[in-house]
Specification:
This protein is an alpha/beta fold. The protein has five helices and six strands. A six-stranded mixed beta sheet has the order 1-2-3-4-5-6, with helices on both faces. Strand 3, helix 1 and strand 4 form a beta-alpha-beta unit. Helix 2 packs across helix 4. The radius of gyration is 14 Å and the shape is globular.
Length: 138
């Protein structure tokens, strides 16, 4: 299991981003908070997939526990799923864990998964600890 050592946190002061990326030794921890918009979720995906370390990542944990509102449409959900095709081909070893208890966000994540744009292992958890446990067992 990744101990979280060798962590680096990215925050772009020039861009309003209600998310934080923490680069860990074998993965990335993405935490959304406040109002989560379509544009900002796409921006976070671009930052992760555009990072030089992306092809070496073994997991991505996305934490939605502090999200107060979640902007989404059926079209944006499908577009985001489609945007995962190329990164999944670049790094087919990555595991994806979502940490969420909000039923609306869970619905949209399940819909994203059901679209079948990527075959990457993707699971939903209610705690970061359970997500990390699942990743460690993979």
């Amino acid at each position: 299991m990744d101990t979280g050592l060798d962590r680096q946190t990215d925050r772009d002061a020039s861009y309003h981003m209600p998310f934080e990326l923490t680069w860990e030794r074998r993965g990335v921890y993405r935490r959304y908070f406040g109002r989560s918009t379509i544009k900002e979720r796409q921006r976070s995906l671009d930052l992760i997939c555009g990072n030089a370390a992306f092809t070496d990542l073994r997991y991505a944990i996305t934490d939605y526990l502090e999200v107060e509102s979640f902007e989404v449409t059926p079209e944006s959900n499908e577009e985001t799923a489609a945007l995962h095709i190329a990164p999944a081909n670049m790094n087919p070893r990555i595991k994806i864990a979502a940490v969420v208890v909000d039923e609306e966000i869970i619905f949209w994540i399940q819909r994203f998964i059901s679209l079948g744009f990527t075959a990457l292992p993707y699971q939903i958890f209610s705690t970061v600890e359970s997500a990390r446990f699942w990743i460690a067992r993979q």
